[in-house]
Structure formats: structure tokens, C-alpha cells
Write the C-alpha cells for this entry.
Amino acid sequence: MSRDDGALSWGGDDDPTLDVGGPRPTENQPPRLPDGFVAVGRGSEDVASSDEATDDEGDAVADETGPQLGNVALVALGLLGGVYLLFTVGWIIGGLRLQEIAPFLNLIPAAYVPAFWLAVAAPAIWFVASLLLTRGRATWVRFVWLVAGAVLLVPWPFIMIGAVGQ
């Protein structure tokens, strides 16, 4: 049965770009493998994976962008970023509430103010540093550092005193 005899035949069905297999390699372009597959054995050096870029001569060019994050990793990264943003707000509110109590603890403003701003900036610094320093590593390493920071940077003044106070 030919393509024209099918029940659903449309004009332009013979367009070669509509083939499911994709474009065929030409003489100048080596055959390609799908993402995640690696060619092994004799002649494997002539086969390029589809995630490798090629130049005009068909030679493989190294991809310098690094591994791409999946959908779940991006959503988890967004959720952790939101947690860090809430921690920043918590440090601001809790630190401002502690400012009223600081004179009773014999803390001078010259010591309290820099510590306050460092505590406010700590979640953002940890988040950005975790992203930058784990850029070339596995995704799970990045998330271990982000979760460790979420545990270490809990805004204790906000939790102990609260936004309204006792």
C-alpha cells in the first residue's frame, strides 16, 4: 500500500523533512546518534552524537555549556531558591526584632549592624556560591550543598522571637 492510498493523505506528505528518522547524513556530515548514546567499536570515531556540535567540515566541536538540568532539577532549584528568599526575609524580620533586645545583651551597634547585614546576605551568598562552585559537578552534588545551606541558614531569630513577638 503506497502513501497515497492511505485514509489520511495530505498535500506535501512526500516532503523529505517530514520523515520520522530526520535528515539523512550527507557525504560531508558524519552519521549521528541520539542523545545519551555513545558509539563504540571500529569506526566509532566517525560517528557523532547529536549533542555534539559540528563545524563546517563535519568535525566534532566540544560543547562548553556543560550538562543540562532536567525539569525536576529546575523545579527543585526554583523551590530551594524560594526557600533561600524566605530565609532572607526571615533574617531581616528576626534581626530587626533582635535589635530591640540587643542593648540588653550588651551588644554595641558597631558590632550588631555588620552581623545583621551579613546574616541577611548569607542565604543569597550561599545560594549563588553553591550554583557557581558546583557548575561542573554532578547535579546531586549541587543539591547536597543547597540543602545543607537550607539547614544551616535557618533564621533562628525569626523562629524564636517571631514577627510579632511574645
